[in-house]
Amino acid sequence: MSDSSNVAGNFLTLGTGEMVSRVIAFGVTIYLARILGAESYGVIAVAAGVTLYFSKIADFGIEVVGTREIAKFPDSVNHLASAVLSARLTLSVLLTGFTILGAQLFLPEPEKTIMSLYFFSLIPIAASTKWVHLGLENALPIGLSIIIGEVLTMGIVLCLVQSCDKLWGVPFAQISGELCIAFLLIMALRQRNYKLGFCWDMATALPIFVRALPLLSQAILWLFIYNSDLIFLRFFRDRESVGYYAAAYTLICFLANIGFSYGMSLLPALTRLRSGSAGEKTLYQTALAHTYAVSLPISVGGCLFASKIINLGFGDGYTNSILALQILIWCIPFSVIRIVPWAGLIARGYQNILLKTVLYSIIVNIVLNVLLIPRYGIIGAAISTVFTECLTGILLFKYATIHDLPFVSLKRLWRPTVASLLMTVLLIILRPSSLLVGFSCGIAVYSLVLTVLGGIRLRRGQLPVLNI
Question: Which of 35, 80, 146, 453 could form a disulfide bond with 415, CB atoms 3.0-4.6 angstroms apart?
Fold first, then answer.
Protein backbone atom coordinates (compact mmCIF):
# COMPACT_ATOMS: atom_id res chain seq x y z
CA MET A 1 0.00 0.00 0.00
CA SER A 2 1.35 3.47 -0.90
CA ASP A 3 1.87 6.12 1.79
CA SER A 4 -1.01 8.24 0.52
CA SER A 5 -3.30 5.19 0.39
CA ASN A 6 -2.28 4.24 3.91
CA VAL A 7 -3.05 7.76 5.16
CA ALA A 8 -6.36 7.73 3.29
CA GLY A 9 -7.29 4.37 4.78
CA ASN A 10 -6.53 5.44 8.34
CA PHE A 11 -8.28 8.76 7.84
CA LEU A 12 -11.31 7.04 6.35
CA THR A 13 -11.58 4.91 9.47
CA LEU A 14 -10.71 7.64 11.97
CA GLY A 15 -12.52 10.36 10.05
CA THR A 16 -15.68 8.30 9.69
CA GLY A 17 -15.76 7.64 13.41
CA GLU A 18 -15.05 11.30 14.11
CA MET A 19 -17.70 12.40 11.65
CA VAL A 20 -20.38 10.09 13.00
CA SER A 21 -19.59 11.07 16.58
CA ARG A 22 -19.60 14.77 15.68
CA VAL A 23 -22.94 14.40 13.90
CA ILE A 24 -24.32 12.86 17.09
CA ALA A 25 -22.72 15.64 19.15
CA PHE A 26 -24.17 18.19 16.73
CA GLY A 27 -27.61 16.69 17.30
CA VAL A 28 -27.09 16.88 21.07
CA THR A 29 -26.01 20.52 20.72
CA ILE A 30 -29.14 21.35 18.74
CA TYR A 31 -31.29 19.59 21.34
CA LEU A 32 -29.65 21.51 24.19
CA ALA A 33 -29.85 24.84 22.37
CA ARG A 34 -33.59 24.34 21.81
CA ILE A 35 -34.36 23.01 25.29
CA LEU A 36 -32.21 25.44 27.27
CA GLY A 37 -32.52 28.65 25.25
CA ALA A 38 -29.69 31.03 24.39
CA GLU A 39 -28.95 32.17 27.97
CA SER A 40 -28.68 28.75 29.63
CA TYR A 41 -26.95 27.33 26.58
CA GLY A 42 -24.44 30.15 26.96
CA VAL A 43 -23.62 28.85 30.48
CA ILE A 44 -22.87 25.40 29.06
CA ALA A 45 -20.83 26.86 26.19
CA VAL A 46 -18.63 28.93 28.53
CA ALA A 47 -18.13 26.04 31.00
CA ALA A 48 -17.24 23.61 28.22
CA GLY A 49 -14.93 26.20 26.66
CA VAL A 50 -13.04 26.81 29.90
CA THR A 51 -12.75 23.06 30.54
CA LEU A 52 -11.12 22.63 27.14
CA TYR A 53 -8.11 24.64 28.35
CA PHE A 54 -7.52 22.29 31.26
CA SER A 55 -8.17 19.26 29.08
CA LYS A 56 -5.16 20.31 27.03
CA ILE A 57 -3.06 20.27 30.19
CA ALA A 58 -4.46 16.84 31.08
CA ASP A 59 -3.46 15.59 27.62
CA PHE A 60 -0.15 17.56 27.75
CA GLY A 61 0.35 17.32 24.00
CA ILE A 62 0.89 13.57 24.28
CA GLU A 63 -1.75 12.78 21.67
CA VAL A 64 0.55 14.40 19.09
CA VAL A 65 4.07 13.78 20.41
CA GLY A 66 3.13 10.35 21.74
CA THR A 67 1.83 9.38 18.31
CA ARG A 68 5.18 10.34 16.82
CA GLU A 69 7.11 8.41 19.51
CA ILE A 70 5.07 5.23 19.03
CA ALA A 71 5.45 5.51 15.24
CA LYS A 72 9.24 5.73 15.67
CA PHE A 73 9.53 3.03 18.34
CA PRO A 74 6.63 0.59 17.91
CA ASP A 75 8.43 -2.16 19.85
CA SER A 76 8.45 -0.14 23.08
CA VAL A 77 4.69 0.31 23.44
CA ASN A 78 4.17 -1.49 26.76
CA HIS A 79 6.79 0.30 28.83
CA LEU A 80 6.62 3.67 27.06
CA ALA A 81 2.82 3.93 27.15
CA SER A 82 2.61 2.74 30.77
CA ALA A 83 5.17 5.29 31.95
CA VAL A 84 3.55 8.20 30.10
CA LEU A 85 0.00 7.27 31.12
CA SER A 86 1.00 6.94 34.78
CA ALA A 87 2.61 10.38 34.83
CA ARG A 88 -0.25 11.96 32.92
CA LEU A 89 -2.93 10.45 35.19
CA THR A 90 -1.12 11.67 38.30
CA LEU A 91 -0.94 15.18 36.87
CA SER A 92 -4.61 15.03 35.89
CA VAL A 93 -5.84 14.00 39.34
CA LEU A 94 -3.99 16.93 40.92
CA LEU A 95 -5.25 19.30 38.25
CA THR A 96 -8.85 18.17 38.76
CA GLY A 97 -8.65 18.87 42.48
CA PHE A 98 -7.21 22.37 42.03
CA THR A 99 -9.67 23.40 39.31
CA ILE A 100 -12.72 22.24 41.27
CA LEU A 101 -11.50 24.12 44.33
CA GLY A 102 -11.05 27.27 42.25
CA ALA A 103 -14.54 26.96 40.75
CA GLN A 104 -16.12 26.51 44.18
CA LEU A 105 -14.31 29.52 45.61
CA PHE A 106 -14.64 32.08 42.85
CA LEU A 107 -17.63 31.35 40.57
CA PRO A 108 -21.33 32.13 41.05
CA GLU A 109 -24.13 29.66 40.41
CA PRO A 110 -24.92 28.00 38.06
CA GLU A 111 -21.38 28.29 36.64
CA LYS A 112 -19.87 26.98 39.90
CA THR A 113 -21.65 23.62 39.79
CA ILE A 114 -21.53 23.13 36.03
CA MET A 115 -17.84 23.90 35.70
CA SER A 116 -16.89 21.77 38.72
CA LEU A 117 -18.63 18.78 37.17
CA TYR A 118 -16.98 19.40 33.80
CA PHE A 119 -13.53 19.32 35.45
CA PHE A 120 -13.99 15.65 36.40
CA SER A 121 -13.69 14.82 32.69
CA LEU A 122 -9.96 15.62 32.88
CA ILE A 123 -9.22 12.21 34.40
CA PRO A 124 -10.60 10.02 31.57
CA ILE A 125 -8.98 12.37 29.04
CA ALA A 126 -5.59 11.68 30.67
CA ALA A 127 -6.33 7.93 30.62
CA SER A 128 -6.93 7.88 26.86
CA THR A 129 -4.65 5.66 24.75
CA LYS A 130 -5.76 7.16 21.46
CA TRP A 131 -2.18 8.25 20.75
CA VAL A 132 -0.93 4.67 21.06
CA HIS A 133 -3.41 3.44 18.45
CA LEU A 134 -2.56 6.36 16.15
CA GLY A 135 1.16 5.65 16.43
CA LEU A 136 0.51 2.02 15.51
CA GLU A 137 -1.60 3.29 12.57
CA ASN A 138 -4.58 1.31 13.83
CA ALA A 139 -7.46 3.76 13.65
CA LEU A 140 -10.39 1.30 13.77
CA PRO A 141 -10.65 1.05 17.60
CA ILE A 142 -10.57 4.84 17.85
CA GLY A 143 -13.37 5.29 15.33
CA LEU A 144 -15.59 2.70 17.01
CA SER A 145 -14.93 3.85 20.57
CA ILE A 146 -15.69 7.52 19.96
CA ILE A 147 -18.97 6.60 18.28
CA ILE A 148 -19.99 4.39 21.21
CA GLY A 149 -18.92 7.07 23.70
CA GLU A 150 -20.89 9.76 21.89
CA VAL A 151 -23.99 7.56 21.71
CA LEU A 152 -23.75 7.05 25.47
CA THR A 153 -23.38 10.81 25.99
CA MET A 154 -26.44 11.46 23.83
CA GLY A 155 -28.53 8.90 25.67
CA ILE A 156 -27.73 10.40 29.05
CA VAL A 157 -28.46 13.93 27.86
CA LEU A 158 -31.81 12.94 26.39
CA CYS A 159 -32.77 11.11 29.60
CA LEU A 160 -31.60 13.71 32.12
CA VAL A 161 -31.67 17.15 30.50
CA GLN A 162 -35.25 18.13 29.75
CA SER A 163 -35.30 21.64 31.23
CA CYS A 164 -33.00 24.42 32.44
CA ASP A 165 -32.96 23.09 36.02
CA LYS A 166 -31.11 19.94 34.88
CA LEU A 167 -27.98 21.61 33.50
CA TRP A 168 -25.81 19.29 35.62
CA GLY A 169 -26.82 16.42 33.33
CA VAL A 170 -24.73 17.84 30.46
CA PRO A 171 -21.28 17.56 32.15
CA PHE A 172 -22.31 14.24 33.72
CA ALA A 173 -23.03 12.88 30.25
CA GLN A 174 -19.70 14.21 28.98
CA ILE A 175 -17.77 12.48 31.78
CA SER A 176 -19.57 9.19 31.13
CA GLY A 177 -18.76 9.32 27.41
CA GLU A 178 -15.06 10.06 28.01
CA LEU A 179 -14.79 7.20 30.52
CA CYS A 180 -16.36 4.83 28.03
CA ILE A 181 -13.92 5.83 25.25
CA ALA A 182 -10.87 5.45 27.52
CA PHE A 183 -11.99 2.01 28.69
CA LEU A 184 -12.71 0.70 25.19
CA LEU A 185 -9.34 1.86 23.84
CA ILE A 186 -7.46 0.16 26.67
CA MET A 187 -9.42 -3.04 26.08
CA ALA A 188 -8.56 -2.87 22.35
CA LEU A 189 -4.85 -2.74 23.21
CA ARG A 190 -5.21 -5.72 25.53
CA GLN A 191 -6.81 -7.70 22.72
CA ARG A 192 -3.64 -7.09 20.70
CA ASN A 193 -1.56 -8.40 23.62
CA TYR A 194 -0.34 -4.98 24.75
CA LYS A 195 -0.28 -4.88 28.54
CA LEU A 196 -0.38 -1.45 30.13
CA GLY A 197 -0.22 -0.82 33.86
CA PHE A 198 0.92 1.69 36.44
CA CYS A 199 4.63 2.37 35.95
CA TRP A 200 6.27 5.34 37.62
CA ASP A 201 9.32 5.84 35.40
CA MET A 202 10.05 9.52 34.95
CA ALA A 203 13.33 8.72 33.19
CA THR A 204 11.19 7.41 30.31
CA ALA A 205 8.23 9.77 30.59
CA LEU A 206 9.94 13.09 31.33
CA PRO A 207 11.81 13.48 27.99
CA ILE A 208 8.52 12.94 26.15
CA PHE A 209 6.77 15.52 28.33
CA VAL A 210 9.62 17.96 27.67
CA ARG A 211 9.27 17.46 23.91
CA ALA A 212 5.52 17.87 24.26
CA LEU A 213 5.74 21.13 26.21
CA PRO A 214 5.90 23.43 23.14
CA LEU A 215 2.87 21.61 21.72
CA LEU A 216 1.01 21.96 25.02
CA SER A 217 1.72 25.68 25.02
CA GLN A 218 0.68 25.89 21.39
CA ALA A 219 -2.55 23.96 22.05
CA ILE A 220 -3.56 26.17 24.98
CA LEU A 221 -2.78 29.36 23.10
CA TRP A 222 -4.51 28.12 19.98
CA LEU A 223 -7.52 27.13 22.04
CA PHE A 224 -7.57 30.66 23.39
CA ILE A 225 -7.88 31.90 19.81
CA TYR A 226 -10.92 29.64 19.36
CA ASN A 227 -12.52 30.40 22.73
CA SER A 228 -11.44 33.99 23.26
CA ASP A 229 -14.39 35.04 21.13
CA LEU A 230 -16.78 33.49 23.66
CA ILE A 231 -14.88 35.00 26.58
CA PHE A 232 -14.78 38.50 25.08
CA LEU A 233 -18.43 38.25 24.05
CA ARG A 234 -19.39 37.31 27.60
CA PHE A 235 -17.33 40.22 28.94
CA PHE A 236 -18.42 42.90 26.46
CA ARG A 237 -21.94 41.67 25.65
CA ASP A 238 -24.17 39.08 27.38
CA ARG A 239 -24.98 35.37 27.66
CA GLU A 240 -27.34 35.54 24.70
CA SER A 241 -24.56 36.73 22.41
CA VAL A 242 -22.43 33.81 23.59
CA GLY A 243 -25.29 31.42 22.80
CA TYR A 244 -25.82 32.82 19.30
CA TYR A 245 -22.12 32.71 18.50
CA ALA A 246 -21.72 29.22 19.96
CA ALA A 247 -24.55 28.00 17.71
CA ALA A 248 -22.83 29.41 14.61
CA TYR A 249 -19.49 27.97 15.70
CA THR A 250 -20.87 24.44 16.15
CA LEU A 251 -20.54 23.57 12.46
CA ILE A 252 -17.05 25.11 12.33
CA CYS A 253 -15.89 22.96 15.25
CA PHE A 254 -17.32 19.88 13.60
CA LEU A 255 -15.47 20.46 10.33
CA ALA A 256 -12.24 21.57 12.04
CA ASN A 257 -12.19 18.36 14.08
CA ILE A 258 -12.51 16.30 10.90
CA GLY A 259 -9.53 18.22 9.51
CA PHE A 260 -7.54 17.53 12.69
CA SER A 261 -8.32 13.82 12.32
CA TYR A 262 -6.78 13.95 8.86
CA GLY A 263 -3.68 15.61 10.28
CA MET A 264 -3.33 12.92 12.94
CA SER A 265 -3.64 10.24 10.24
CA LEU A 266 -0.97 12.02 8.20
CA LEU A 267 1.48 12.49 11.08
CA PRO A 268 2.71 8.87 11.54
CA ALA A 269 3.10 8.42 7.77
CA LEU A 270 5.24 11.57 7.48
CA THR A 271 7.22 10.50 10.54
CA ARG A 272 8.20 7.20 8.90
CA LEU A 273 9.46 8.93 5.76
CA ARG A 274 12.97 10.36 5.66
CA SER A 275 13.13 14.16 5.92
CA GLY A 276 13.73 15.67 2.50
CA SER A 277 12.95 12.46 0.64
CA ALA A 278 10.91 12.38 -2.56
CA GLY A 279 8.28 10.27 -0.79
CA GLU A 280 7.83 12.85 1.95
CA LYS A 281 7.47 15.71 -0.55
CA THR A 282 5.00 13.76 -2.70
CA LEU A 283 2.81 12.82 0.27
CA TYR A 284 2.95 16.36 1.69
CA GLN A 285 1.95 18.09 -1.54
CA THR A 286 -0.72 15.54 -2.37
CA ALA A 287 -2.23 16.09 1.08
CA LEU A 288 -2.30 19.85 0.43
CA ALA A 289 -4.10 19.39 -2.88
CA HIS A 290 -6.64 16.97 -1.40
CA THR A 291 -7.50 19.16 1.59
CA TYR A 292 -8.00 22.13 -0.74
CA ALA A 293 -10.26 20.11 -3.03
CA VAL A 294 -12.46 19.02 -0.12
CA SER A 295 -12.57 22.17 2.02
CA LEU A 296 -13.28 24.80 -0.66
CA PRO A 297 -16.71 23.47 -1.80
CA ILE A 298 -17.71 22.91 1.83
CA SER A 299 -17.17 26.59 2.60
CA VAL A 300 -19.07 27.65 -0.51
CA GLY A 301 -22.03 25.44 0.34
CA GLY A 302 -22.01 26.44 4.01
CA CYS A 303 -22.05 30.13 3.12
CA LEU A 304 -24.90 29.76 0.62
CA PHE A 305 -27.05 27.62 2.93
CA ALA A 306 -26.19 29.22 6.28
CA SER A 307 -29.75 30.41 6.93
CA LYS A 308 -31.20 26.97 6.21
CA ILE A 309 -28.56 25.29 8.41
CA ILE A 310 -29.29 27.57 11.38
CA ASN A 311 -33.09 27.47 10.99
CA LEU A 312 -33.18 23.71 10.58
CA GLY A 313 -30.73 23.04 13.38
CA PHE A 314 -31.50 25.67 16.00
CA GLY A 315 -34.85 27.18 15.03
CA ASP A 316 -36.10 30.71 14.45
CA GLY A 317 -34.78 31.86 17.82
CA TYR A 318 -31.20 31.77 16.46
CA THR A 319 -31.63 34.00 13.40
CA ASN A 320 -28.87 36.24 14.76
CA SER A 321 -26.42 33.38 14.19
CA ILE A 322 -26.83 33.27 10.40
CA LEU A 323 -24.49 36.06 9.33
CA ALA A 324 -21.88 34.91 11.85
CA LEU A 325 -21.94 31.43 10.28
CA GLN A 326 -21.63 32.87 6.76
CA ILE A 327 -18.43 34.60 7.85
CA LEU A 328 -17.04 31.83 10.06
CA ILE A 329 -17.44 29.15 7.39
CA TRP A 330 -14.48 30.68 5.55
CA CYS A 331 -12.25 29.54 8.40
CA ILE A 332 -12.54 26.01 7.06
CA PRO A 333 -10.18 26.17 4.03
CA PHE A 334 -7.48 27.81 6.16
CA SER A 335 -7.89 25.58 9.23
CA VAL A 336 -8.09 22.34 7.23
CA ILE A 337 -5.28 23.01 4.74
CA ARG A 338 -2.85 24.32 7.37
CA ILE A 339 -3.11 20.99 9.22
CA VAL A 340 -0.77 19.59 6.53
CA PRO A 341 2.25 21.85 7.28
CA TRP A 342 1.38 21.44 10.97
CA ALA A 343 1.79 17.66 10.66
CA GLY A 344 4.89 18.05 8.47
CA LEU A 345 6.67 20.30 10.96
CA ILE A 346 5.82 18.06 13.93
CA ALA A 347 7.02 14.97 12.03
CA ARG A 348 10.38 16.69 11.70
CA GLY A 349 10.43 17.73 15.37
CA TYR A 350 9.90 21.48 14.86
CA GLN A 351 7.39 21.96 17.71
CA ASN A 352 8.95 25.30 18.70
CA ILE A 353 8.04 26.78 15.34
CA LEU A 354 4.38 25.98 15.95
CA LEU A 355 4.52 27.75 19.29
CA LYS A 356 6.02 30.85 17.69
CA THR A 357 3.28 30.83 15.03
CA VAL A 358 0.51 30.68 17.61
CA LEU A 359 2.07 33.48 19.66
CA TYR A 360 1.92 35.80 16.65
CA SER A 361 -1.65 34.74 15.91
CA ILE A 362 -2.93 35.17 19.44
CA ILE A 363 -1.60 38.72 19.68
CA VAL A 364 -3.44 39.63 16.49
CA ASN A 365 -6.58 37.82 17.67
CA ILE A 366 -6.71 39.64 21.01
CA VAL A 367 -6.24 43.02 19.37
CA LEU A 368 -8.98 42.33 16.82
CA ASN A 369 -11.38 41.03 19.48
CA VAL A 370 -10.89 44.14 21.63
CA LEU A 371 -11.41 46.41 18.61
CA LEU A 372 -14.31 44.60 16.93
CA ILE A 373 -16.44 42.81 19.54
CA PRO A 374 -17.53 45.84 21.63
CA ARG A 375 -18.84 47.53 18.50
CA TYR A 376 -19.94 44.68 16.22
CA GLY A 377 -20.67 41.84 18.65
CA ILE A 378 -20.74 38.34 17.17
CA ILE A 379 -20.01 39.66 13.66
CA GLY A 380 -16.82 41.25 14.91
CA ALA A 381 -15.88 38.01 16.64
CA ALA A 382 -16.39 36.08 13.40
CA ILE A 383 -14.27 38.50 11.36
CA SER A 384 -11.50 38.31 13.97
CA THR A 385 -11.50 34.50 13.82
CA VAL A 386 -11.32 34.30 10.03
CA PHE A 387 -8.49 36.84 9.84
CA THR A 388 -6.55 34.96 12.54
CA GLU A 389 -6.97 31.63 10.74
CA CYS A 390 -5.70 33.20 7.51
CA LEU A 391 -2.64 34.65 9.25
CA THR A 392 -1.85 31.32 10.96
CA GLY A 393 -2.05 29.44 7.69
CA ILE A 394 0.27 31.89 5.95
CA LEU A 395 2.84 31.64 8.74
CA LEU A 396 2.77 27.83 8.81
CA PHE A 397 3.27 27.62 5.06
CA LYS A 398 6.10 30.11 5.30
CA TYR A 399 7.93 28.08 7.96
CA ALA A 400 7.26 24.80 6.16
CA THR A 401 8.73 26.23 2.95
CA ILE A 402 11.82 27.43 4.82
CA HIS A 403 12.33 23.85 6.04
CA ASP A 404 12.08 22.35 2.57
CA LEU A 405 8.35 21.53 2.58
CA PRO A 406 7.25 23.65 -0.38
CA PHE A 407 3.64 24.53 -1.13
CA VAL A 408 1.88 22.52 -3.80
CA SER A 409 2.01 23.84 -7.36
CA LEU A 410 -0.97 26.09 -8.11
CA LYS A 411 -1.49 24.13 -11.32
CA ARG A 412 -2.80 21.28 -9.20
CA LEU A 413 -5.52 23.46 -7.70
CA TRP A 414 -7.29 24.81 -10.78
CA ARG A 415 -9.66 21.87 -11.19
CA PRO A 416 -11.31 22.11 -7.74
CA THR A 417 -11.39 25.90 -8.10
CA VAL A 418 -13.29 25.75 -11.39
CA ALA A 419 -15.60 23.03 -10.07
CA SER A 420 -16.40 25.14 -6.99
CA LEU A 421 -17.14 28.23 -9.12
CA LEU A 422 -19.51 26.32 -11.40
CA MET A 423 -21.20 24.76 -8.37
CA THR A 424 -21.68 28.24 -6.86
CA VAL A 425 -23.22 29.65 -10.03
CA LEU A 426 -25.65 26.76 -10.38
CA LEU A 427 -26.78 26.91 -6.75
CA ILE A 428 -27.35 30.67 -6.96
CA ILE A 429 -29.46 30.19 -10.09
CA LEU A 430 -31.46 27.22 -8.79
CA ARG A 431 -31.91 28.48 -5.21
CA PRO A 432 -33.12 25.12 -3.90
CA SER A 433 -35.70 25.49 -1.13
CA SER A 434 -34.61 22.34 0.69
CA LEU A 435 -31.26 22.00 2.44
CA LEU A 436 -31.02 18.34 1.49
CA VAL A 437 -31.75 19.09 -2.17
CA GLY A 438 -29.27 21.96 -2.16
CA PHE A 439 -26.44 19.89 -0.69
CA SER A 440 -27.21 16.99 -3.01
CA CYS A 441 -27.14 19.26 -6.07
CA GLY A 442 -23.93 20.89 -4.92
CA ILE A 443 -22.14 17.58 -4.33
CA ALA A 444 -23.38 16.17 -7.63
CA VAL A 445 -22.32 19.20 -9.69
CA TYR A 446 -18.94 19.54 -8.00
CA SER A 447 -18.17 15.83 -8.42
CA LEU A 448 -19.34 15.79 -12.03
CA VAL A 449 -17.31 18.85 -13.07
CA LEU A 450 -14.25 17.58 -11.22
CA THR A 451 -14.57 14.21 -12.96
CA VAL A 452 -14.94 15.81 -16.39
CA LEU A 453 -11.84 17.92 -15.73
CA GLY A 454 -9.88 14.83 -14.71
CA GLY A 455 -9.77 15.64 -11.00
CA ILE A 456 -11.54 12.39 -10.11
CA ARG A 457 -10.29 9.19 -11.71
CA LEU A 458 -12.75 6.36 -12.30
CA ARG A 459 -11.54 2.81 -12.81
CA ARG A 460 -13.61 -0.31 -13.25
CA GLY A 461 -13.86 -2.33 -10.07
CA GLN A 462 -12.23 0.39 -7.94
CA LEU A 463 -13.40 3.30 -5.82
CA PRO A 464 -13.06 6.81 -7.33
CA VAL A 465 -9.67 8.41 -6.65
CA LEU A 466 -8.77 12.10 -6.41
CA ASN A 467 -6.32 12.92 -9.20
CA ILE A 468 -5.16 16.37 -8.15
Answer: 453
